[in-house]
Design brief:
Number of strands: 34
CATH topology of the largest domain: Glycosyltransferase
Strand content: 15-25%
Largest sheet: 15 strands, antiparallel
Distance between the termini: 56 Å
Number of helices: 15
CATH class of the largest domain: Mainly Alpha
Helix content: 25-40%
CATH architecture of the largest domain: Alpha/alpha barrel
Structural class: alpha+beta
Radius of gyration: 25 Å
């Protein structure tokens, strides 16, 4: 039974049980009648749009904020529950997996005893330090969440601060290693708690009282106005001695200083400065500091369709993000991060060009075997929960173009040591010359039959074009006449087979009528000018046939034979591509209006996931999503400057720093 016989803990707070159900028998800590109560609640009402599933209120995807230490990231809900955390790396097994199951799969709740959604929350300006406040009848309390930049071990710090009055607090810690599969041994010592299971060891230190309850570590205490009560959770390998416990207040200061110092390097100004800075901080949080790799998201298996199977592991680095990543970082003044990303890219692609993959691990790992975790029920019953990603083994011809486009941008931006990678580029180009005319799986990793995707051919043209310019503009060695001839051949091939003159639009793949949002990138990569009639026709057709509520779908799954059942939401990066396409077409007012509508889809702390469910009015897919935030940054900068630039052309940075 619950502590007072009146409320039952849920994924992101508490569900009030009607009085008629109180005081009944207990099973595993929950009233036996709870399922019936939930069914009644489900039929009668929803809680602020949240879904009732398996007897609990699950947080919406947009209810989560992220904190991180440049090695991994944790998701914190509006109810004060950390429901996702992988240690020690982004791609490690999770020790908190409530996000894709129930609280029994691991979480760390810290909130007022009465629970519920917070009154307000925000990041401290320019940082990844999260402050969440609840106003209760007895007073106001604030929880400060952050992860100090990593040293030898990982720390996650939570400080409970009494703002006014006297507030009863409740904490629950349930460590479940290996994605909720392993319950650790836990023992108390003079410092707090020590949990251990296999390679993982966690130390939990606080001056608040602790006791065990139903395989959870529980803390009930009162915080007075002006009082600050810290909690520190530290991960270390189980075979090393106990690490030094950090002082919560000291590392709060150093963490704030780190992030504010980093944000102060940003050169972006203009109308959308705040949105850009928040996106850049988020992207920094997705960066794995030791290698410079940037993960697509901190999560796995948040669904593109609620209840469906389109659930993928995004804790890896995609080459498709390469050019937009570099362009955004350089334009914002982050040359160190841009150089680190370029260096990660070169290390990852080194080897036989025939073995080039679409994605790699954060250290450049190639083997990312996909498997399912059947013991996890999935976010809102969206099964399966997957780790690894089988798409890493697909043939996607666009990645050769993405890599060579990114390295051309590096060259054009005058970063140091760019010539050292020319031999690699020549090898990649020579291999692409032999395979560009093959069918492939396409940008979107379709698991249906291979086809001749128009975007893939356009990116093969990009590869040849960038190599030609490397020779012509920079004097680098190579068979330029052959590459020029290939560039012309591919261009003719796309125009003959990838364009529908009757509808005046490019199409997703040769010989078929379906549309694809990647066609909006044709002017961005320089294949055709942004005001070319065929580009304008494609923009109009996509607006007419491939949008929902004005937002752009990647494609229509029912028509595109992507090898999977079900549907998906609108893909947020694609709508940002439409922003740039409209701007290039001279339709600035439309472009601005769409961009500002996209900003409204961010959550209360400025985060975007992968997709937006128009009918449900909520975020979908893994979060926070790097592809969405990079596209936001580049679109904002181009709107600031009222111009569009090719993907291999640097966006000029502003001359002043943020805060100056």
């Amino acid at each position: 039974m619950d502590r007072h016989g009146q409320v039952v803990p849920g994924v992101e707070g508490w569900i009030m049980v009607p009085p008629v159900f109180r005081g009944l028998a207990v099973h595993s800590g929950y009233p036996l009648c709870f399922t019936a109560a939930v069914h009644l609640c489900f039929l009668c009402f929803s809680l602020r749009g949240r879904s009732l599933w398996q007897g609990m209120v699950m947080a919406l995807i947009e209810d989560y904020a992220v904190v991180g230490d440049l090695h991994t990231g944790a998701l914190v809900s509006t109810a004060g529950s950390i429901d996702w955390l992988c240690l020690p790396r982004f791609d490690s097994p999770a020790c908190f997996s409530a996000l894709v199951d129930t609280p029994d799969s691991g979480r760390w709740l810290l909130a007022p005893e009465g629970g519920g959604t917070c009154t307000r929350r925000s990041y401290r300006d320019g940082t990844l330090v999260l402050e969440t406040e609840w106003e209760t009848t007895d007073g106001t309390v604030r929880v400060i969440d952050f992860m100090p930049p990593r040293d030898a071990v990982a720390d996650i710090v939570r400080i409970v601060e009494g703002v006014s009055g006297s507030v009863r607090m409740h904490g629950e810690l349930a460590l479940r290693f290996d994605y909720g599969h392993i319950v650790p041994w836990v023992r108390r010592d003079k410092h707090g708690l020590h949990a251990i299971a296999g390679p993982d060891s966690v130390y939990f230190v606080t001056k608040a009282p602790l006791h065990g309850e139903n395989m959870h570590s529980v803390s009930d205490f009162t915080v007075q106005a002006g009082e600050r009560i810290p909690f520190v959770l530290t991960w270390a390998p189980s075979h090393v001695p106990r690490p030094h416990t950090v002082d919560a207040e000291v590392v709060l200061g150093t963490t704030l200083a780190f992030w504010r110092g980093w944000a102060s390097q940003c050169t972006v100004q203009g109308k959308y400065q705040d949105a850009v800075v928040r996106s850049l901080v988020t992207l920094k949080a997705l960066t794995y500091a030791p290698t410079g790799g940037i993960v697509a998201a901190v999560t796995t298996s948040l669904p593109e369709q609620l209840g469906g199977p389109r659930n993928w592991d995004y804790r890896f680095c995609w080459l498709r993000d390469a050019t937009m990543t570099l362009q955004a970082l350089l334009a914002a003044g982050y040359t160190t991060e841009a150089a680190a990303w370029r260096d990660w890219l070169l290390r990852a692609v080194a080897g036989d060009p025939a073995d080039l993959q679409i994605m790699y691990g954060i250290h450049g790992e190639r083997r990312l075997p996909e498997m399912e975790l059947p013991w996890l029920a999935g976010y809102e019953n969206s099964k399966p929960v997957r780790t690894g990603n089988g798409a890493a083994d697909q043939l996607q011809l666009d990645v050769w173009g993405e890599v060579l486009d990114c390295l051309a941008l590096t060259r054009n931006s005058l970063l140091k040591h760019t010539d050292e990678s020319w031999d690699v580029q020549v090898a990649l180009m020579q291999h692409l010359e032999t395979i560009w005319d093959q069918p492939d799986n396409g940008l979107w990793e379709m698991r249906g039959p291979r086809r001749h995707f128009t975007h893939s051919k356009v990116m093969a043209w990009v590869a040849a074009d960038r190599m030609v310019k490397g020779v012509r503009d920079f004097g680098l060695p190579g068979p330029v006449e052959r590459w020029e001839a290939l560039r012309d051949t591919i261009h003719r091939d796309v125009m003959a087979n990838g364009f529908d003159p009757v509808r005046n639009t490019f199409v997703q793949s040769y010989g078929r009528p379906e549309l694809d949002a990647s066609l909006l990138l044709i002017p961005r990569v320089g294949f055709l000018p942004p005001d070319d009639p065929r580009v304008l026709g494609t923009i109009n057709t996509i607006q007419r046939e491939l949008t929902e509520d004005g937002f752009v779908l990647r494609y229509r799954p029912a028509d595109s034979d992507d090898g999977l059942p079900g549907d998906e939401g609108v893909f947020l990066a694609c709508s940002f591509w439409m922003v740039e396409a409209l701007l290039g077409a001279g339709r600035t007012e439309e472009s601005t209006e769409l961009f500002e509508r996209l900003l409204e889809l961010r959550n209360d702390v400025g985060l975007l996931s992968e997709e937006w469910g128009v009918r449900a009015g909520r975020q979908l897919g893994n979060t926070p999503q790097a592809f969405s935030h990079f596209a936001l940054v580049t679109s904002a900068l181009e709107l600031h400057q009222d111009t569009v630039r090719r993907s291999d052309t640097p966006i000029p940075p502003e001359t002043e720093r943020v805060g100056q």
